[in-house]
Amino acid sequence: MLFFKIILLILIIGASTVLGILFSKKYSNRVKELKEMKNGLNMLATKMKFTYEPIPNLFLEIGSKIGGNVGQVFIRASDRMKEQAAGEAWSNALEEVPNNLTEEDKIVLKNLSRLLGQTDLEGQISEIAVVTQFLGTQLENAQQERVKNEKMYRTLGIVSGLTMAIILI
Hints:
Layout: H1 2-51, H2 55-66, H3 68-80, H4 86-96, H5 103-110, H6 121-168
Helix pairs in contact: 1-2, 1-6, 2-3, 3-4, 5-6
């Protein structure tokens, strides 16, 4: 009987610790996705400036290079551009693909959809630069949140597991 009780307590502590780690991961994943998005937009601006390829082709190429959730956003936008305008496809892809971005991050990224494919090359590149600059601010905020909350969730998971174990003893 004591053996089963010890195993149950270890499982409770382990499960709560894992839950704490999983909750803390969303903060580091957000930072990673914002960095990838910023790199993807920088690649888009460079390729638009020097290759003059159609936007759907650029999005597909960038999406395959980046991979992950951010890559899927670019690939989905590229696929949607067959039926929709570029800006609308970008906006819809941001909503459809599951990611760790906050609504505030998505609003910043959706600003790109206003001019994407609708203005001249220089206008689009300057809009990408503005969005990239805003993403830099979002990235700084995300890193501060990560530092603050990541450790808290991990500790909270361990402490809640220990608390439940003590109560059950």
